[in-house]
Amino acid sequence: MSRTSYREALREAMREALARDPRVFLMGEDVGRYGGTFAVSKGLVDEFGEQRVRDTPLSELAFVGAGIGAALGGMRPIVEVMTVNFCLLALDQLMNTAATLRHMSGGQFSVPLVVRMTTGAGRQLAAQHSHSLEGWLAHIPGLKILAPATLEDARGMLWPALEDPDPVLLFEQGALYNVEGELDETEVVGIRSARVRRAGSDLTLIAYGGTLAKALEAAEQLAGEGISAEVIDLRVLRPLDDATIMESVRRTRRALVVDEGWRSGSLAAEIIARIVEQAFFDLDAPPARVCSAEVPTPYAKHLEDAALPQVPAIVAAARGLLGR
Amino acid sequence: MSSVPYPAEFAVTLLRDMLRIRRMEERAAELYGEGRIRGFLHLYIGEEAVATGALHALEAGDAVVATYREHGHALLWGVPMDAIMAEMYGRLEGCCHGRGGSMHLFDAATRFLGGNAIVAGGLPLAVGLALAERMQGGRRVTACFFGDGAMAEGAAAESLNLAALWRLPVLFCCENNLYAMGTALSRAQAQTDLAAKAAAFGVPARAVDGMDVVAVHQATRLAAKQVRAGHGPVFLEYQTYRFRAHSMFDPELYRDKAEVESWRQRDPIKGYAARLIADGLLDASGVAALEAEAASEVEAAVACAEAGSLEPVESLLTDVYTPERQP
């Protein structure tokens, strides 16, 4: 165990990857001299030079596309997009090229690209820097979507993502960067499955990224009321790990999804649809969800808080599932 | 009319390849009419001198990124006509097993990277391929074809800047046929001098007569040499014209028949054949022989496509992701 932060864990993962494989390089806006918008890449340019830690112009479409091209050309690029809202400027390349190329070409090309971006609210950055759009991207066949919520995943997901032959999008919840804790260096981090972060028997809370800590806190409160909540950390948003979800839900017979995305057409909706399709007859209550309010994320703290899934709402929804 | 500055064999090869593209596409248009080919089909007829002159100026191993009007580029870059025709038929024998169709021809073996049906979508990709080449210390050029319409896209502006900024080995090949689908260049872009537009990004640029295969070849050879030497990207604007409709659904309401006719007078194949004959590099029977060759290649390709098989529906989902390696 060692003391670290989510930010430092992400940085250490990049440092390791850059040191380990000469094909790996990092590019994005202000990743070099500035040290990264959120200081994730701080110091890396001094260690690895400007060829491998490349500052780009404000051209998301071109540098994400260039990441795809570089991946096709034999490199292992890590492309940093400042926030998920900005990745909309590059959506054409992500959707129309990265995700389609292998299938469309009859299996001739793989795109071993990793794109990292910040997602989520909680820092009063308002309506153009705060959304959780990973659910949209998780709609796209051909992409793999990761959401590290723990220090171990922040430290451990990058390398397997780089080893993956297909495009992987890694969503870092911005509010987590300063979270500190003890990193369990013995945990084996894969990028295939969800994990049960807390065992329980009365209901299953399904969360990821920025909502995991809230779900765990809710579970703790529920425990005080004699309700045993299991907490699943999805970790991989595409492809979804149905097996872990269903195993848990069949056992607890109740499911509550906590998703920072908007409710309509959300990842939460997809998960609940799957639970209904696969575990309907094991359920004791209709599956429920706590999502963000369907508004552009507001700036003022009290409004932002009100727009996001919060612990009291999770606890209340959980009680509701148990008829309490 | 200047004389053709090449030995007979190469001089004739240029004509042969233009003819191969023309006859393949004329047949494709017929097959479209017969319902054998579906989807969108964009013909390159009229523009053959560009792909032919340009691709003959590159070296094996260079990468080629093209557009949805790319049958000719694929053919000359080494994709067999059989595989192109079978792809248009949606057959397993197609270069992409029938998954891509006319607009998405790919060939990993020759580094032919599409077949991109998003206008300007290929430019960032080409920049990345060139970046990888540079970072790995290679000398290969990435040639990226796109039309005048692409020059209105943000992707083009961003890509030209990035390639110039990082001095990457990209050869930007702008096929200016004056129309972005049905919108004339002058109705879409305030700066219609596309070479000037590229130059504004710090990319050395020049315009070339795209109806003259020799001019295209010579300009491209020079440009490719400069790119290969590590002097950064070069932009060539090939001034050309599409004789046929944008696609098979286009009633051509946006341009005069007289304009089309005047460009047809500059047909790159007829004009070049006449030059070869005038220079004594070929005679009428030589032209007839090339025609016969092209016709038989086309008919063989059609036969291959007709006899082709269909990818089993069971494999619909394969290659959305890369299959896992067996331990």
TrEMBL record, chain A:
Every Transketolase-like pyrimidine-binding domain range: 4-179
The entry's keywords: Oxidoreductase, Pyruvate, Thiamine pyrophosphate
Keyword Oxidoreductase appears in the UniProt entry: yes
Record InterPro entries: THDP-binding, Transketo_C/PFOR_II, Transketolase-like_Pyr-bd, Transketolase_C
Any Pfam family: Transketolase_C
Swiss-Prot/TrEMBL cofactor(s): thiamine diphosphate
Matches recorded under SUPFAM superfamilies: Thiamin diphosphate-binding fold (THDP-binding), TK C-terminal domain-like
Gene3D superfamilies per the UniProt record, alphabetical: 3.40.50.920, 3.40.50.970
GO MF annotation terms: oxidoreductase activity
Domain of life: Bacteria
NCBIfam families hit by this protein: PRK09212.1 (NF006667)
Cited PANTHER family: PYRUVATE DEHYDROGENASE E1 COMPONENT BETA SUBUNIT, PYRUVATE DEHYDROGENASE E1 COMPONENT SUBUNIT BETA
Summary of the function given for this chain in its UniProt record: The branched-chain alpha-keto dehydrogenase complex catalyzes the overall conversion of alpha-keto acids to acyl-CoA and CO(2). It contains multiple copies of three enzymatic components: branched-chain alpha-keto acid decarboxylase (E1), lipoamide acyltransferase (E2) and lipoamide dehydrogenase (E3).
Identification of the protein by name: 2-oxoisovalerate dehydrogenase subunit beta
Species this protein is from: Pseudomonas linyingensis
TrEMBL record, chain B:
InterPro entries from the UniProt entry: DH_E1, PDH_E1_Alpha_Subunit, Pyrv_DH_E1_asu_subgrp-y, THDP-binding
Keyword Transcription regulation part of the UniProt annotation: no
Pfam families: E1_dh (PF00676)
UniProt-listed Enzyme Commission number(s): 1.2.4.1
Biological processes annotated in GO: pyruvate decarboxylation to acetyl-CoA
Catalytic activity of the protein: N(6)-[(R)-lipoyl]-L-lysyl-[protein] + pyruvate + H(+) = N(6)-[(R)-S(8)-acetyldihydrolipoyl]-L-lysyl-[protein] + CO2
SUPFAM superfamilies cross-referenced by the UniProt entry: Thiamin diphosphate-binding fold (THDP-binding)
Domain of life of the native organism: Bacteria
UniProt keyword terms in alphabetical order: Oxidoreductase, Pyruvate, Thiamine pyrophosphate
Cofactor(s) needed: thiamine diphosphate
Domain Dehydrogenase E1 component: 17-308
GO molecular function, one term: pyruvate dehydrogenase (acetyl-transferring) activity
Signal peptide region: none
Function as written in the Swiss-Prot or TrEMBL entry: The pyruvate dehydrogenase complex catalyzes the overall conversion of pyruvate to acetyl-CoA and CO(2).
Subunit architecture: Heterodimer of an alpha and a beta chain.
Record-given protein name: Pyruvate dehydrogenase E1 component subunit alpha
Organism whose genome encodes this protein: Pseudomonas linyingensis
